[in-house]
Amino acid sequence: MKKVRLEMVEKENRMDFFKYLLLADESEEVVKQYVYDGDMFSIHYENRIAGVVLFTLHQNQVVELKNIGLDRNFRGSGIGKIVLLEAYEKYAGMHKMVVGTANSSIGNLAFYQKAGFRIIGVKKDFFLHYPQPIFENGIRAMDMVMFEKELKLGE
Fold first, then answer.
1. Residue 81 maps to which CATH number?
2. What is the predicted pLDDT for the residue at 153?
3. Does residue 130 lie within any of the structural domains?
4. 5-41 pLDDT tens trace
5. pLDDT tens sequence across 95-139
6. Which neighbouring-strand residues pair with 139?
């Protein structure tokens, strides 16, 4: 397994990692609304920063994977899956993890399902409220597809 390390990013240093958050969420205005929420970790692989991941905590023992931004050089290498496995351990006391992604994010839709997440709903027109339209894979991002995964010790 690849050697991946997560390091906590303190609130006063979060803007140093802003560019990584924008890799997963293109709207600076939207990212600025949540950059100081929850727990942020820098993702390290072979002594290099590969990206960042941000989790927010909600009622009823729910943790949300709010943003995971990996540098393009590290995508498709299995690092994202390892980050999720680390997160399952970090938040093992929580009931479940939720994550949302755009209807146009074909790779993300497959990634989360391969990681054991199940579709639980769609937030219709979610991305229509973004300041600028987002297009991926020739598809306009309009709806957010919501996923959840129950967390159990040892997963």
1. 3.40.630.30
2. 56
3. yes
4. 999 999 999 999 999 999 999 899 999 999 999 999 9
5. 999 999 999 999 999 999 999 999 999 999 999 999 999 999 999
6. 136
Integer angstrom CA distances of residue 27 from 21, 62, 91: 10, 25, 27
Q: How many residues does the chain have?
A: 155
Does residue 98 fall inside a structural domain? yes
Domain count within the chain: 1
Integer CA distances (angstroms), 146 to 17, 108, 112, in order: 25, 11, 10
Distance CA 26, CA 104 (A): 13
Show the 3-state SS of the chain: CCCEEEEEECHHHHHHHHHHHHHHCCCHHHHHHHCCCCEEEEEEECCEEEEEEEEEEECCCEEEEEEEEECHHHCCCCHHHHHHHHHHHHCCCCCEEEEEEECCCHHHHHHHHHCCCEEEEEECCHHHHCCCCCEECCEECCCEEEEEEECCCCC
- Has residue 86 been placed in a domain? yes
In a domain, 155, yes or no: no
Cβ atoms of residues 46 and 33 within 8 Å: no
Q: Which domain holds residue 38?
A: 4-150
Best CA proximity match to 20, nearest among 31, 11, 34: 31
